[in-house]
From TrEMBL:
Name assigned to this protein: Large ribosomal subunit protein uL15
Sequence ranges assigned to domain Large ribosomal subunit protein uL15/eL18 in this UniProt record: 78-148
KW rRNA-binding (keyword) present: yes
Compositionally biased intervals (Gly residues): 22-32
Keywords in alphabetical order: Ribonucleoprotein, Ribosomal protein, RNA-binding, rRNA-binding
Gene name of this polypeptide: rplO
Length: 150
């Protein structure tokens, strides 16, 4: 190794890209690759999201209808059959609550949970969640379990 073949380590040099606005001899002088006139050639230009050059933007052209209730509560539904599978697999024993379901990665910690009546439950469980369907509550109490609404 000598001074004639020194070079930086691989990946340590990051080339800055085009050097614009450094005179005509560079090939990128004059307009500095921005072209002539128009908003994009000016300094400080930024456009609004969805701006289409003055044309009516798509989000304003498309008709809107219906109603979205922003106060709606979304529940994560869990069927009785899913709870029975967990009992059969030995992952839950006698008590089921939101923390248990979060630890089993069935729901996320901020989710609202609703037990649905799909399937059949044979195990006696004490279930504490946010909501139950009428059929699910009846099925849980029929096998001697307890349905506690939070």
């Amino acid at each position: 190794m000598n001074l004639s073949n020194l070079q930086p380590a691989e990946g340590s040099v990051h080339r800055e890209g085009k050097r614009v606005g450094r005179g005509q001899g560079s090939g990128k002088g004059g307009t500095s690759t921005r072209g002539h006139k128009g908003a994009k050639s000016r300094s400080g230009f930024s456009h609004k999201i969805g701006f289409e050059g003055g044309q009516m933007p798509l989000q304003r052209r498309v008709p809107k209808f219906g109603f979205k209730n922003f106060n709606r509560k979304e529940y994560v539904g869990i069927n009785l059959s899913k709870l029975q599978e967990l009992v059969d697999a030995g992952r839950i024993a006698d008590k089921v609550d939101v923390e248990t379901l979060v630890q089993l990665h069935i729901v996320k910690k901020n989710d609202l949970v609703k037990i649905l009546g799909g399937g059949e439950l044979k195990a006696k469980l004490k279930i504490s969640v946010h909501k139950f369907t009428a059929g699910a509550k009846a099925a849980i109490e029929a096998v001697g379990g307890e349905a506690v609404t939070l």
